[in-house]
Amino acid sequence: MAAVGSKLPEGRPGDVPEGRYGRSRTADEAADRKLKLIGAVLGVLLLGVVGWFGYDYIAGTKISGEVIKYDVVSDHAVKAHLEVRKDAGTRGYCTLRSQAESGDEVGRADFHFDRHTDRIDQVITLRTKAKATNIELLGCHSD
What we know:
24% of the residues lie in helices and 38% in strands. By secondary structure, it is of the alpha+beta class. The longest helix is centred in the N-terminal third of the chain and has 35 residues, at 25-59.
């Protein structure tokens, strides 16, 4: 109850005087709404970037290769029949390595290709520092 002679603030009953208790509730609600909107937009942008990189990783240029056969031609060379399948305009390289009977690596080389065909069939000579017993394809990658 108000004291005799005191004046009640104008407005609806139960309202607090403006500015007495900090910012009004409507200003806080507006700030919360703005932050939620900014967070949602940034979240959508982040999902878009992650999706783009994921798609590029999965559906990116595919290159596959296979050593059809190989022949140890001397103590310092191995010939390999390499077949590469790729998109027609793709440039890249395949890495081959050769091992001795002990398991030590005696030769390694990258063979580059840039032909505008989707299939490359080539016999490659890999130089080795000792007698090799095998040759293996480590992988093929696009440039």
